[in-house]
Amino acid sequence: MTERDTLASLVADPRPFLDVPDPLLRRLAASACVNRGDDATRERLEGMLRDDPVAAVRRECAETLGSLAAAASLGALVAAIDDPEVGVREAAVTALGEIADPVVVPRLLELAAGDDDVLIREAAVAAAGAVGDEAALPTLLELVTSGPPQVRRRCVVALSVFDGPDVEEAIQAATGDRNPMVREAALMVTGGRSE
Q1: Which of 35, 143, 173, 184 gives 147 a disulfide partner, CB atoms 3.0 to 4.6 angstroms apart?
Q2: How far apart are CA 133 and CA 138, in angstroms?
Q3: pLDDT (tens digit, 9 = 90+) per residue, 95-135?
């Protein structure tokens, strides 16, 4: 089979390629499963997210599960937050935001407030904003002033999905943040208005 034939077969039905030895083909197959939301495929991707030896494949599985937005995958994605590879963890956190189930907000806020990796903290803030649950507001309002610059910037954007005078005040205050990327994000959210 030529490479072109292999890719054509993968596009036509990626599921048989989830079990091949080549990690690149497994990764491509996981990505191509985005249009296949059946339970068997979803469960196979969850198993790969847990067990595949290649981090890039696990990451692709997390991203695809997020795109499928299946609440049934919440458990697998929450478990993937503890993956040893940061890229897999970030993809799992982002996927939780795409699924947007408020049940994950406490875990997202825990990560946003205190994970050791700033990339994970950023992803958790973004995911909490994507979920849009009011329970996230106290943590986001705190982190928009106290977090590292990347987290403060993400908080500005996450807060933009909420309403209320405390939210408007926090975003307006961020237009004067000591960090230029935070200020820029706040100015974009406010339409360039600062007081």
Answers
A1: 143
A2: 11
A3: 999 999 999 999 999 999 999 999 999 999 999 999 999 99
Rounded to whole angstroms, how far apart are CA atoms 112 and 118? Answer: 9
Helix (H), strand (E) at residue 26: helix 23-32
The model scores a pTM over 0.85: yes
Query: Would you state the structure tokens that stand for residue 8, as one six-digit string?
Result: 């054509």
Q: What is the CATH architecture assignment of 108-195?
A: Alpha Horseshoe (1.25)
C-alpha to C-alpha distance for 100 and 66, rounded to whole angstroms: 10
Options 3.30.1330.10, 1.25.10.10, 1.10.760.10, 1.10.3720.10; CATH for 1-99 is 1.25.10.10
Distance, CA of 47 to CA of 79 (rounded, Å):
11
